[in-house]
Structure formats: structure tokens, C-alpha cells
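Field reference: sequence -> structure
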Amino acid sequence: MRALGGLHLPRTQVGVSRWRRFRARFDWPLFLIVAAISLVGLLNLYSATHDTRHAVKFDQQVIRMVIGGVAFFVVSFFDYRTLTRVAWFGLGFTVLALIVVALLGDMSLAKGSHRWIAFGPVRLQPSELVKIAVILVLAKMCQDHEASPFGWHQIAARVALLAVPVGLIAMQPDLGSSVLVVLICLSIGFLALRQVWPVAVVTGAGLAMVPVLWEYMHDYQRMRVLAFLDPGADPTGSGWHTRQSVFAIGSGRISGKGFMEGTQNQFDFLPEHWTDFPFSVWAEEWGFIGSLALLAGFALLLVWIVSVGLAARERAGSVICIGVGAMIFWHMMVNIAMVLGMAPVVGVTLPFISYGGSSLITCFIAVGLVSSVSLRRHGF
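Structure field:
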């Protein structure tokens, strides 16, 4: 028995009551926006892989989206405030996982890079989980800073701890994910902190380190940057990806060539078009109108996330929404800029659209955190 409002109710009735309140206060518009974008991703993936040796990827993606949907609801049910209290432990776990990847990672899945841990048929990419851990840690930092402002040495110590997973990801090597983690941190810093001087100092220091980082980059990473600066210098080598992507997008024109009618896609001119270049597939088949509709869907998702953050009851909830919004925004911007030839090819996925396991489920967990913040606005 459990007391509820002065009455003693059986635990089963309390559970039913709690489930009813969950359904009534759950952020259904957020879920429907994510579901709509995910369905677009499945439609696009089917076109990119049907009647090829990669057709099994569609079935795998459906399973992963179901798992992601379940994760969305589970994370929504959990109180985000509890998760922020153990955020540092979560970051420590992801750092440990990155160390395990460096020692035992499966290189066969990433062309020589250590990015995945294999558990039988299951593959885990810890660098994706780092993004969630970093967002929760920054939410806790902002909450603690509001209660008792940090000194510069305390800020420096925390920045140094956050730099550890970034360095480990860069060493895999995974330039795209490491840059995204940095962009998430800077976005939260500029948008959530009342004083931006620490973020400005970190940004300036990072920019000053670019020449040094260039010396430590792998040859293929340098070639990608050089191909971005001059795609025509090596059109059949390092510039191939970008040129074929631009051809595909341009050939879609206003209304596109039609579903499964894109020649760049169907004849396999687009490399990795189910992971890195799904937007090129979509733009070729659905044209400018379809591309605009997809971008409008992402814009609606970001606006909704921001609105949840503005209405959050605690600062930690607002910061979580800023972090998740920044994660989705930068993933989208970097991927689309990459396929348009406006950024180097760094292997960044398009949220809910690209084929993938860890990246897809991480996106569902991230919006699940936003849903948790939304749910607690109503006192759930």
C-alpha cells in the first residue's frame, strides 16, 4: 500500500495513475516530429540500398529505430535531474570505454581507425555516447555554478577534464566527432553562461592550436581538407566524394528526379550514400522542394527543443536542451555543408537520416532527455 493524497492505494493503482499522468503530459509533438524525420530517413535509405548487396542495411535500420524509439520513451520516463547528479560518473565511464577502444577496438569497421567495441554481433561506438555525457556534465556545471560561482582555476580544471575525451576521440582518429564535441561545448558556453570570457579564451586557444594540429593530422585527413579547398585538384581521388555529391544535388533541380530515380544514387557514383551522403540522395530524388521540406522539419525540431529549454523549471534542464539542440544543429550543418562542398568530408552523420547504430540511438537518447525536461515542466 502507498499513501497518495491522504488515501492508501495499492501499488498497482499508483503505477496506473503514474502511467496515465505520463501519457497525458508526455511531449507528443516532439515525438511526432522525430518520428516524421526518421520515416524520411527510412524512405531515403530504402532508395539508397534496395536491390544491392547493402539491402540488409534497411532491415537493420528498422530494428535500430525501434530500439531508439524505446530508448526515447525510457529516457523520457527517467528524471533528468537524477542523470545530471551522476553526470561525472557517466563521463568517466565513456572515457574508460574510449581507452578500451584504443586498446581493443575493431579496426575492420572503420578502415584502420579504432572506433568500435565489438560484443558479438553488437557494435558500440563510445564517441557517440561522449556527446550525451558531455551535455549532462555541462548541465551539472552550469547548475552548480549558478548556486556557487566557480573561480578561474575551477573552470580550468573542468575544461581540462572535458578535453580528455576530445583528445581520445581525435586519436582514434575521428576528427568529425571530436570537432562536434568541441562545438557542443562552445555552443553551451556561449548560450548558457552569463560570462562568456572563459569560452572566448578557450576558443582563442583552440584556434591558435590549429597549425599544431595540422602537423599531427593523418595524411588522409589533410587530403580531405585540401580537397575541400580545391576539389578540382584531384577529381578522381580525394575530390571524388564532394564532386559526385554536388553533381547529385544539382541534378535534382526544383522537384527532383523521383523516388528511386536518382542516377548518381542508383548507379553507385555516390560513395557511402547511406551514411555520409544521404542528403545528396534525397536532394537528387526530391529536388529543392524536398530538400527545403526536410530542412524545415529539422528547423521545427530545433525550435521545439529551444521552446522546451526556455520553459524548463531548472537551469540544468535548459542547458540540456541547449546541448541537444546544438548537437543536432551541428550534425546537420556539418553534414549538409560537407555534401555541398562547403566543408571537408569528415564522416559526420545526418541525425535520424543516416544509416548507423550508435549515432542513431544516441540521437534518440538525446531527444529523450529533452522529453524528460518537457515532462518535468508539468510536475511529473
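Note: The chain has one domain: 28-377.
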